[in-house]
Amino acid sequence: MTISEKFTTKKLSVFFTLLFAANGSFFNANAEQVSVMPLNYVADKAISTNPEVQQAWHAFKASMHGIDAARSGYLPTVDVSASAGYEKRNYGIEEEYNRNTAELTLGQMLYDGFRTSNNVKRFERIQLIRYFELLDQAEKTALAASIAYLDVQKFTELVELAEINLKEHESVYQQIEQSVGAGVARAADLEQISGRLSLAQSNVMTEYENLHDVSARYLRIIGELPTQGTVKAKLSDDAIPITINQALDIAYKNSPNFYASLYNIEAQKANADSQKSAFHPNVDLSARYGMQDRDELGLNETRSEARVGIDVRYNLYNGGLDSANLDQAYQEVNVAKYQRDQTCIEIRQNLQIAYNSVQVLQSKIPSLANHKESSQKVKYAYKDQFDIGQRTLLDVLDAENESFQSNRSYTAALYDRQAAILTMLAEMGKLLETLNVKSDKFPAISELTDDPIALSADSICPKFDVAATLSRQAFLQKKKQQDNAYMSVTAMPSYLTIPTTPASTFVDDDNDGVANENDDCPSTPAFTEVDERGCTKYRSNTSNVEIGIPFLADSSVVRPEYMQEIARLADFLKEHPSKNVEIQGHASLEGPALYNKKLSEKRAFSVAEILIQQYGISPTRVKSLGYGIDQPRINEISVRANAANRRIEAVITEKGNRPPAMKDGWS
């Protein structure tokens, strides 16, 4: 049974798990099933009814028939012709008679300059292009449906906030109106609250307008109106890669749009090879058998004729048509290559923007939450102060407006972050998998080709971390000045236990016995054995070392002045090839636990990545893990405890052994 026969009778319903990773690796995005269930429903519903997905599906099915048409060039052709007619003429023996003829012709291509084989290859690549375009359209539709769902929920909540704000304004307006009527308040106060009341009413109408527009978009994409009381959806942060480079690696291995551009190049190359066939001879086997019941003179004489032979045709000149077609085909290959490069650039840009949005919003949400909580407290405090005559109603109204705006900003940020996560997953080609939208009714890539493209994206799509070139980290450091004690204490641990002494000519900030001017490792932790250059000394039986790397606040970038410690660890691993290392990140107890865990993971990953990429340590020997606040050295929140708890440790074991904290994954 051919592929077209296998899939012609199947209907488009719930969609599929992406099984097209060329290197066989998959990304474990462990989103909670209950949390993504509503997104699963709307994505499934949209994919099963969306006209663009249907169009891509039928384009894919049409490409199957294109392969069958191309393969027909290998098969023989059989033609039969017959005629029966009345003839009349004014010469010969008989002037009127009936003539009957019949002929059977068979042809078989023996050699056509590989035109047929290259046409088959081209249409096979076109089928794969349509397949990945189908996957890409499904990802885009699932993204649009999921964001439409989140937008309906977001503006539903914003409408409720605006209505509550309006009720507060109406209440204050009534109180001031009564006070003006009683001669207690001034008429100007009534005019002021009247203007604010109009603005609050306008805010409600604006939010309703926004809700109407996103509901209309929901109807267009999903095919039904949103229902009241929908379940809230929340994506797990496990779906977020540790670094942008890791996210780009996943995208280049899984993006259907990128793979479609790669197979388009292969299709155009096959077309160019097909055009070369015009410069080769054509060799065909032909056979013919015919008969007629009248000869050329019209005599009633049955004749038959048969022929079997090999026909060779070789074009010598046709006006330069073949050369022009070949040159055109080569240029089409170049066009396809630049289309691939453009696709790569767009994926990199879109993914960087989405990934950065996730990170920025994650950093903003705690601040917005604090603003919301503070505004709420101020609002209640102003109401209490108004009751004892220390605040006016307009003061209360100002606090109410501040609380409304802070609630609105916080709510919008929560939904915007989820939309950014969805966009990031779609750019990586992982949205359908994360939402658990799948079906076994569609082919995997292994069913369409035995020779998938072996991709090396690094040479095609170099990775860049745009965020690392910006000054956002400096801003965040300034924003978290209360966290700067970590920097000073980590770099100068002696200050924790030893009183400040008068300045002397010998300065040793990290208290390792090596003067600053001779210290290549300026932040070696206390009690660490160091060499004459102030760097950690490794021995053959070393099992656990704290690496002195002070990170900037909210940063996982290893600064150049602290690379020496990583270099020493790399030298030790090269001298002892039987050793493995696990880089462990630990955080202080201060701040949100989930945030600290993610930050410790990023910092450990940064050190491990430097060992692998810059110092050539095999990835099978290096692991990284972030423990967050799970293993504090000092179980308290203080300057001293924070400095001790925020650390990077290297746990060294023999191959085949695991560090105590590891449960699996060690090679």
UniProtKB/TrEMBL annotation:
This is Outer membrane protein, adhesin transport system. Residues 1-31 form the signal peptide. It comes from Pseudoalteromonas lipolytica. PROSITE patterns: OMPA_2. Its main location: membrane. Belongs to the outer membrane factor (OMF) (TC 1.B.17) family. It is found in: Cell outer membrane. Pfam families: OEP, OmpA. InterPro entries: OMP_bac (IPR006664), OMP_efflux (IPR003423), OmpA-like (IPR006665), OmpA-like_sf (IPR036737), T1SS_OMP_TolC (IPR010130), TolC-like (IPR051906). Keywords: Cell outer membrane, Membrane, Signal, Transmembrane, Transmembrane beta strand, Transport. Residues 538-656 form the OmpA-like domain.
